[in-house]
Amino acid sequence: MIAAKERTKAAAGAADPMRPELYRVQRSRRESSDTFTLELTPPRGYKPTPFQPGQFNMLYMPGVGECAISISGDPADDGVLLHTTRVVGTVTRALNGCKAGSRVGIRGPYGAPWPVAEAEGNDVVFVAGGIGLAPLRPAIFHVLAHRRQYGRIVLLYGARTPEDILFKPMLRKWSSRLDMDVYVTVDRAEAGWRGNVGVVTNLIKRAPFDRLNTTAFICGPEIMMHYTVLEILGRGVNEKGIYVSLERNMKCATGFCGHCQMGPFFVCKDGPVFRYDKVKRWMEIREL
Amino acid sequence: MTIHDLEPILREHPFFNGMSDEHVRILVGCAKNIRCNEGDFFCRFGKKADEFYIIRNGKVNIEIDIPQQGSMTIQTLEDGDIVGWSWLFPPYKWNFDARALQLTRAISLDADCLRNKCELDHDLGYELMKRFSAMMMERLQATRLQLLDFYAGPAGAKG
Amino acid sequence: MTRIKDIATAYLPAEGLQALIDTLRQHHDRVLGPRVREQAIRYETISSVADLPRGVKDEHEGGRYRLHQGEEATFFGFVVGPDSLKSIVYPPRLTLWSMKRSGHEGTIEDQDEPVGSTAILGVRPCELAALAVQDKVFLGHGFEDPHYRQRRERLFLVAVECLQPGAHCFCDSMGTGPGVNGGASWDLALTELVGDGRHGFLVRAGSDAGREMMAKLPLEQAGDGLEKARETALAAAAKSMGRTLDTDGLKKTLYDHVDHPHWEKVADRCLACANCTMVCPTCFCSNTMEETALDGSSAARTRVWDSCFNLDFTYIHGGHVRRSVKSRYRQWMTHKLASWQDQFGVIGCVGCGRCITWCPVGIDITREAAVLQGKPTKTSGRTTS
After folding, report:
1. Residue A81 lies in a domain
2. Domain boundary at A230, A245, A260, which?
3. Cα separation of C178 and B59, whole Å?
4. CA distance A229 to C341
5. In this complex, how many residue pairs, one in chain A and one in chain C, have their CB atoms less than 8 Å apart?
């Protein structure tokens, strides 16, 4: 037997990062007319990798396909996995149709998280636009659970209409806390809405934070993040204290499929959370 | 509250930041303290624009009443914001309603008084115009962003 | 003929090539080598020297590839066809796993069968370089692709150095050829030498497996003259490259020229057909498709090659990031020559020239790079813009 044959101990049995685990849908909860939260439990005997705030999973609907969705639950709660998403296509539509007991394939968690540990000692400003509140929520849970490690905690949240506001009971709870400032605004409202109207960037100039010791976590449509960053920079926050979460087409989430590239980055593994100064140059290039 | 009490308030307000003491004193001469209860209007669409307002504390909605639909809010203004620029340009009529969302205290500045003072002192006029132009640009930009409707996402999504 | 044991360099007369193929066949589950099929030189199963495209020459032009039967006796007188090792280690279509359903329950089964060991004869140095690049992508980049690994680990590579580069070759510029030079580790390297009335191969071993293989071949002692002949031939080959690409400062040039008007010019010609990405030995992008049984009882996930030239490649709910062809060509070339360096520490191009040959309109990566670099470019044939 020569060496070539000896080398034939194939790694065929090695774990395939593309292979999901089948989770059970415990509950599906409507958040607004087109958004919903899935509560998922892992299969018996499977120990999920704990996630960090800002990470995402690949969700697979048998017979339909797979898509990347951020995790919206509490990182300290390892019992149930929460995914909040909007119905935007075939996979999310199918996920929206899931009833308790359905199976959903999960692989992950993937991606670079919000650097909550690095933000310790600082004021933390969360700026969320639309569904962008979902990926920020685990980080909010984290800083509130470690409240003494942080300075002021501010949440600025912009939604399209009052009807589109996510996590309303939770927002009410956070608003009532004395150690957190919550400002919500909507782009348009009809009579009867007693809250703020105007874009989320309007909230930044008045938000209470110390510009020299602030970490800003921003998540929303890319164009909204662009203007939000400008406002925060305008308040005098250093660009190294600003983080954004980007969204790109992802087929594998492991850096193989190439779809999510943005300049030198694979958004799936170098991101989705990026420090602004590192990704600024690439965000400014059209159709990159 | 007397005029003497208003002077430090205007002087410290970011909108008048950098204005000379003399100019601030002229403004104070046109200013008075007002309050609006919840639901009251600071100004109404079509009426004469004879004032503008500096919100000291409270919340004010810029609204428009749409027939058959009721009032639509364009923007919510808060502490420190300025309400109204229709007084600057003929025909000096309000284009929108401004309504207090809660008890709101403000300083009102008389438009006739200010326009006269500005004609007599163009330096004052320029200082005011600089500040109003910057604010109008900021509001226009915010309105443009609102027009983008960026949370709606493009139609026909399939992913 | 004598059998020479534990020798690193030796001479294999052309008549001994069959013995090499036979030995490879004895020790490996399949033996692949260059073979003419569908008017192109492809990697196919071979069992005899008669399968090799002896005397065949390949003609390369922008958007044109033709084979001619020449008079020469050489077995490896051509350069590269559309195939590369990529399709062997990273199949164009591979079912990863499938799921059977019954009610709410489901079971997932891996579908990628263990593959046998594969010996490949006629691997060009640029192919070895490309394999090293792919190793970084699939094995050295955080996650590991087990499908790639199991194929990659079972290769026995017999390289053949290039003494007659083609019109689109620029491996000399990329430091990947024409002789074996760096790149993925190989087992045997052959240099086909004709002269002084002799035709045969200088054989070197690059691995223990290669040395063991050499021990089984009808080898002769290689004199200094042969080694000299090899060096002379390689030096001449390096000088006769059809193309050059200046890699000095290339990353910065591309990063700094995202808005260069030349992208529009290339886009005017580019058909976004994705041919360049399919023939490129390092392009690795893929899509994963859902395949469902009609009755819904089972579904399978199949990975297929994809291309950054496809519009849907960058689709995210409701819109495409790269809508214009300009942005897609820019992405491909900038990735290949610039951002690849940031991602994997190496340039993504090995200088094989396939993308030039197989581009229907003859877009030429070396020429487009030269324009961005502000270098004077020759206007010739179809590769103008």
Report:
1. yes
2. A245
3. 76
4. 29
5. 164
Residues of A in Cβ contact (< 8 Å) with C108: 19-20, 22, 105
Identity of residue A9: K
- Domain check: are A81 and A191 in the same one? no
pLDDT digits (tens, 9 = 90+) for C15-49: 999 999 999 999 999 999 999 999 999 999 999 99
Q: Which domain holds residue A128?
A: 123-245
Structure tokens at A288: 């990159």
Question: Which of B148, B150, B151, B158 should one mutate to test binding to chain C, selecting the residue with the greatest count of C CBs within 10 A?
Answer: B158
Per-domain boundaries in chain B: 33-147
Q: Does residue C284 register a pLDDT over 70?
A: yes
Q: Which structure tokens are listed for B40?
A: 């009251």
Domains: count for chain A: 2
Shared domain for A105 and A130, answered yes or no, is: no
CA distance C121 to C24: 9
Q: Tell me: do A46 and A127 sit in the same domain.
A: no
- pLDDT tens digits for C119-168? 999 999 999 999 999 999 999 888 999 999 999 999 999 999 999 999 99
- Whole-number average pLDDT of chain C: 93
**Rounded Cα gap, residues C249 and A74, in angstroms:** 47
pLDDT greater than 60 at residue C361? yes
CB spacing of C145 vs A263 below 8 angstroms: no
Q: Which of B73, B149, B159 sits opposite A197 (nearest CB)?
A: B73
Q: Is residue A239 in some structural domain?
A: yes
Q: Where are the alpha helices (DSSP H) in chain B?
A: 3-12, 21-29, 111-120, 122-148
User: Are A4 and C324 inside 8 Å of each other by CB?
Assistant: no
Residue of B nearest to A65 (CA): B159
Please check whether residues A50 and A141 belong to one and the same domain: no
In words, the CATH class of domain B33-147 is mainly beta
Instruction: Quote the pLDDT of residue C193.
Output: 95
Q: C296 vs chain B: nearest CA distance in angstroms?
A: 21
Domain boundaries, chain C: 9-91+113-239, 250-290+307-383
Q: Quickly tell me which residue has 């799921």 as its tokens.
A: C99
Give the mean model confidence (pLDDT) for residues A66-88.
94
- Judge if the upstream peptide bond of residue A42 is cis by omega within 30 degrees of 0: no
CA–CA separation, B124 vs B117, rounded Å?
Answer: 8
pLDDT number for residue A14: 60
Size of interface A-B (CB pairs under 8 A): 77
| B72 and chain A in contact, CB less than 8 A | yes
B151 touches chain A (CB under 8 A): yes
